[in-house]
Amino acid sequence: MAKAKTQFICQNCGTVHSRWAGKCDGCGEWNTIVEEDPMGGIGSGPGKAPKKGRPVTLTSLSGEIEEAPRIPTGMGELDRATGGGFVRGSAVLIGGDPGIGKSTLLMQAAAALARRGHRVIYVSGEEAVAQVRLRAQRLGAADTDVLLAAETNVEDILATISEGKRPDLVIIDSIQTLWSDTADSAPGTVTQVRTGVQAMIRYAKQTGATMVLVGHVTKEGQIAGPRVVEHMVDAVLYFEGDRGHHYRILRTVKNRFGPTDEIGVFEMSDKGLREVANPSELFLGERNEKAPGAAVFAGMEGTRPVLVEVQALVAATSLGTPRRAVVGWDSSRLAMILAVLEAHCGIRLGQHDVYLNVAGGYRISEPAADMAIASALVSSLAGIALPADCVYFGEVSLSGAVRPVAHTAQRLKEAEKLGFSAAVLPAASPDLPKGSAGKWREVDSLPDLVARIAGSRLKAPTGQEDG
Length: 467
Ligand code: TYD
Ligand code: MG
What we know:
This protein has helices at 76-82, 102-115, 129-138, 154-162, 190-207, 228-232, 279-283, 331-345, 370-382, 408-417, 446-454; strands at 7-10, 16-17, 33-36, 70-71, 86-87, 91-96, 120-124, 147-150, 169-173, 210-216, 235-240, 247-255, 263-269, 272-275, 294-301, 304-316, 324-327, 352-358, 390-392, 395-396, 402-403, 422-426, 439-443. By secondary structure, it is α/β, with parallel strands linked by helices. It folds into three domains: 1-39; 70-277, P-loop containing nucleotide triphosphate hydrolases (Rossmann fold, 3-Layer(aba) Sandwich), CATH 3.40.50.300; 282-457, Ribosomal Protein S5, domain 2 (2-Layer Sandwich). The longest helix is centred in the middle third of the chain and has 18 residues, at 190-207. It starts with 6 loop residues before the first strand and ends in a 13-residue tail after the last helix. 41% of the residues are buried. Magnesium ion binds at residues 102-103, 126, 173. The site of thymidine-5'-diphosphate has 15 residues, from α2 and α3.
């Protein structure tokens, strides 16, 4: 092996540099490059005798499984997102835009747990005690036994929470304000955040207390600071929502102790967050059933069906390059649907602007929305309103075929529950309920769907449609 050389490694993305720099070219982060000795650490180089290890007992995959001990908050939507309550001894990261309601959510959770007799400590690094008290008053949580501290120093926080009886839950709001004496970089830097989070996680593992960490999100939608924080914790939840709308979604993106596709839905009111047990009613609240271009999508969020309206506006363009604007859906997925409509259904959209919006500021991530989107587009282009009592779902493939999606029965059940008596869905859907009252229209291809919605109206070979 060649002569040992020190390396400079970015602590955020792992890029190896030959010399120190203020900014990493790999990820663009500042102050993340640290000198490391490649001969040190794991698998140390020749010359150093490896430490003699202690053998551990090997075991089998079968055997008794211990259920992770949980502390449910009693807030149904929060417990759903965490998979049944906070797991003792685990670290949970809650990310979200500033002002979205993270502190509000956690203060409510803290109060709920304190009411159930748990010892909860709320450490605020961003707001002074008076501010936190004011919020607690507004939320009707001021009379609970939540213990409060305004502190940002990691060592001081650890000393505080280690004193007295072990807490059941510790909330750190937020990790970006943490700073430690042991890391010699400025507060808020990647190294500081990482050191602070590491110390908090170690405390959780050692004592069995649950550690809830709040993290702000950057413009790119990631938790500010190192990505590695997400790898270090046991669960990552994102609190999302549009500032212009009242509802908020708590989305699980990582969970070592439960499912990752669950969401909790809340509504922000003047007295804090209110749980929304039936999100479909919220997203269908302000429907105009006679307007062309609106289709109701029967979607799924984890184990829960969610009905949401998608709105399309297809209008003749005055620009050289027509506009494509999407809110709440994937824009490349829209481009794909438009291409399939052009190639297989003879619908020309080159002279049309296309705008697509998912109602209520909701975000759809399922490919099953393809059919609803296509229906909304065709409806807007043809100027024909879709039947008000019909839902749409199904995946569209590039060949123009429509493919079945999972959970057909559940989607239809939710639709029926909310008064939708018809559905347009893929042919050969596997778990189609037999003998139910609804009218299920099976379509096997996108041209079939277009013909059903617009008849021969869009079939003009010259491509002259009215919008
Ligand atoms: P906050 O929890 O401070 O957000 P974060 O911690 O994510 O930065 O909440 C911020 C917003 O919520 C603020 O703009 C005011 C609003 N809000 C209400 O509408 N009702 C309430 O009862 C509370 C406490 C806050
Ligand atoms: Mg806050």
